[in-house]
């Protein structure tokens, strides 16, 4: 309804309309005057986020594509974590990102050890190429910081053991950044398996790979053994190894076998293998079979879990934002669904580590898990080097 100028003579319709509005306002005011605003007690024990000043403070070490595209944005939804420092060899990039994310503490690789004197850093997230993981993790632990390190945790089991030992010596927490353990769809699959929805587990398969492009900087270092640590299994196949074992709590790996599957004459693979197929024999009697490749196109991320009553297929299974579940068998027709937003995994992972660091108690994916997986991958390489010979192990899941 349009208003009117008080200098104009109102029409009969305007008088009636404004009169009705005034009467309604008076009636409402009368009701308001008869009521009082009263406080209510806090009900239950709600899990509230920390206020910013109480959140654990993080330094991000390495500002490559994964850190900038996934890790750093994940802090926006974190409830117990905040970024306070960036460590990079590119000072201009670090300061540009700092201005965007309100981070004002900057270090380079040349003065990294000075973080020991920075009381605004509680936790360090190592997001460097694999060949640098052990060095910077151990230096951060010696500086008195808790460390979450990207997967795979190191270039070798020996390096990983040194990292675990350094964490114990410093009385600090070390975590391997296996984000899938915090991804809602994979967590849901684990719940279905442990609840017996699939019956008794019979078989697990895992396929992970993509086509490596040596002209693309984020791929180039993966094809160099010194930085990449190993080949496709070190980078993409580790998802299949870790996620498969995630679904078998309490089991043990008793033997390993593997075979290389690298295309002959492919110039990309002069330092590392291009592909590998592997099999784990479990104490429960089931097999975990997987494949890992730098030779496939398009990108593949698939996990399949077969039980005596039903099966689950996840394709994609371990991506940043597209994971989904298909269940077949049991009492219902086949269906595909999501149990939650996969993007939650990044905030959930850093918050999970923040809470573990605050209490100084082991993380859900501790350094010992990263060490376990490196021992298994080294056993795969030993088998492949021996033309598929079975390697006996005794490794608890």
Automatic annotation (TrEMBL):
<dbReference type="InterPro" id="IPR050463">
    <property type="entry name" value="Gfo/Idh/MocA_oxidrdct_glycsds"/>
</dbReference>
<dbReference type="InterPro" id="IPR000683">
    <property type="entry name" value="Gfo/Idh/MocA-like_OxRdtase_N"/>
</dbReference>
<feature type="domain" description="GFO/IDH/MocA-like oxidoreductase">
    <location>
        <begin position="189"/>
        <end position="313"/>
    </location>
</feature>
<dbReference type="Pfam" id="PF01408">
    <property type="entry name" value="GFO_IDH_MocA"/>
</dbReference>
<keyword id="KW-0560">Oxidoreductase</keyword>
<dbReference type="GO" id="GO:0000166">
    <property type="term" value="F:nucleotide binding"/>
</dbReference>
<feature type="domain" description="Gfo/Idh/MocA-like oxidoreductase N-terminal">
    <location>
        <begin position="56"/>
        <end position="176"/>
    </location>
</feature>
<dbReference type="InterPro" id="IPR055170">
    <property type="entry name" value="GFO_IDH_MocA-like_dom"/>
</dbReference>
<dbReference type="InterPro" id="IPR006311">
    <property type="entry name" value="TAT_signal"/>
</dbReference>
<dbReference type="InterPro" id="IPR008354">
    <property type="entry name" value="Glc-Fru_OxRdtase_bac"/>
</dbReference>
<dbReference type="InterPro" id="IPR036291">
    <property type="entry name" value="NAD(P)-bd_dom_sf"/>
</dbReference>
<dbReference type="Pfam" id="PF22725">
    <property type="entry name" value="GFO_IDH_MocA_C3"/>
</dbReference>
<dbReference type="GO" id="GO:0016491">
    <property type="term" value="F:oxidoreductase activity"/>
</dbReference>
<protein>
    <submittedName>
        <fullName>Gfo/Idh/MocA family oxidoreductase</fullName>
    </submittedName>
</protein>
């Amino acid at each position: 309804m349009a208003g009117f100028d008080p200098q104009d003579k109102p029409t009969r319709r305007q008088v009636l309309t404004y009169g009705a509005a005034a009467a309604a306002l008076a009636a409402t005011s009368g009701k308001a005057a008869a009521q009082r605003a009263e406080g209510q007690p806090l009900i239950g024990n709600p899990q509230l986020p920390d206020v910013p000043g109480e959140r654990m403070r993080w330094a991000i070490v390495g500002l490559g594509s994964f850190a900038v595209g996934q890790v750093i944005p994940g802090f926006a939804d974190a409830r117990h974590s905040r970024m306070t420092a960036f460590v990079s060899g590119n000072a201009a990039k670090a300061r540009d990102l700092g201005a965007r994310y309100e981070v004002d503490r900057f270090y380079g690789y040349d003065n990294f050890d000075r973080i020991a004197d920075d009381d605004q850093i509680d936790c360090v997230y190592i997001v460097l190429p694999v060949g640098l993981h052990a060095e910077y993790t151990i230096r951060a632990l010696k500086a008195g910081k808790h460390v979450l390190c990207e997967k795979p945790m190191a270039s070798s089991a020996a390096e990983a053991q040194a990292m675990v030992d350094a964490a114990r010596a410093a009385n600090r927490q070390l975590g391997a950044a296996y984000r899938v353990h915090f991804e809602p769809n994979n967590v849901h699959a684990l719940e279905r398996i442990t609840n017996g929805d699939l019956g008794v587990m019979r078989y697990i398969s895992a396929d992970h790979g993509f086509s490596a492009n040596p002209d693309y900087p984020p791929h180039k270092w993966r094809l160099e053994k010194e930085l990449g640590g190993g080949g496709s299994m070190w980078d993409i196949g580790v998802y299949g190894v870790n996620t498969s074992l995630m679904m078998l709590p309490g089991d043990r790996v008793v033997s390993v076998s593997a075979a290389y599957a690298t295309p002959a004459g492919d110039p990309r693979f002069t330092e590392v293998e291009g592909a590998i197929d592997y099999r784990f024999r479990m104490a429960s009697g089931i097999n975990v079979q997987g494949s890992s490749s730098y030779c496939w196109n398009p990108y593949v991320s698939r996990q399949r879990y077969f039980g005596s009553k039903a099966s689950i297929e996840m394709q994609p299974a371990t991506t940043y934002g597209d994971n989904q579940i298909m269940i077949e068998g049991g009492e219902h027709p086949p269906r595909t669904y999501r149990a939650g937003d996969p993007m939650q995994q990044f905030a959930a992972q850093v918050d999970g580590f923040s809470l573990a660091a605050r209490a100084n108690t082991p993380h859900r994916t501790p350094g010992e898990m990263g060490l376990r997986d490196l021992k298994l991958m080294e056993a795969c390489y030993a088998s492949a080097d021996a033309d598929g010979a079975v390697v006996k192990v005794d490794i608890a899941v």
